[in-house]
Amino acid sequence: MGEVDPALCDVVGEETGRSFGFPTRILPLLEEIAFAYDIERRQYHSTKILEKLAETAPPQSVKVIAIATVDLFIPILTHVYGEAQLGGKACIISTYRLRENPHPGQRRISLKERAIKEAIHELGHTFKLRHCPEHTCIMHYCRSVADVDRKTAGFCRHCRVMMEDELKRMEGGVQG
């Protein structure tokens, strides 16, 4: 969705695969997203893209994530870095606002690092994880790029346990 750097897709695929223990494949799923464009806001409605993504995802895929370069929103927020179907199959992140540098004079956090964090965060939601109050946990809600930079790419102890429980349920074929 937009001109996404293939190297960014590769590294996000590798890191999300490592975090969740699943093999990853990079596939072009949605080319045309004009249907989600809101002319008044000049942004793309991420929920509409998610619905289409879930419909068009390969049936054998456990989860799917889209990486976009456009500005995303949901109606109640000015923008989002990503969105996911809680406990569902699909999620999306956007690099559009992850390029900002809120720390003049400090080491610039790479777009790659931020995209990895947001991808893991949104995929966490697809595994039924909710936002975490722990500021360094990957599942912490981010209002700004500075918040994204502050958190780690890992789960806190509580979220890790919740994630492991969900993976066990999935392996056992138990729906929870």
Describe the 3D structure:
The protein has 5 helices and 6 strands. It is an alpha/beta fold and 176 residues long. The chain has one domain: Collagenase (Catalytic Domain) (3-Layer(aba) Sandwich), CATH 3.40.390.10. A hairpin with a 4-residue loop joins strand 1 and strand 2. The termini are far apart.
Which overall shape is indicated by the principal axes computed on the Cα atoms?
Answer: globular
Computed CA radius of gyration, to the nearest angstrom: 16 Å
How many helix segments? 5
Beta-strand portion reads 5-15%
Strand order of the largest sheet: 1-2-4
Order of helices and strands: HEEHEEEEHHH
Question: Mean pLDDT, rounded to whole units?
Answer: 89
Decide which structural class fits the backbone.
alpha/beta
Name the CATH superfamily classification. Collagenase (Catalytic Domain)
Largest sheet: 3 strands, mixed
CATH C-level:
Alpha Beta
The N- and C-terminal alpha carbons lie at a distance of: 32 Å
Helix content: 25-40%
Weakly predicted, low-confidence segments: none
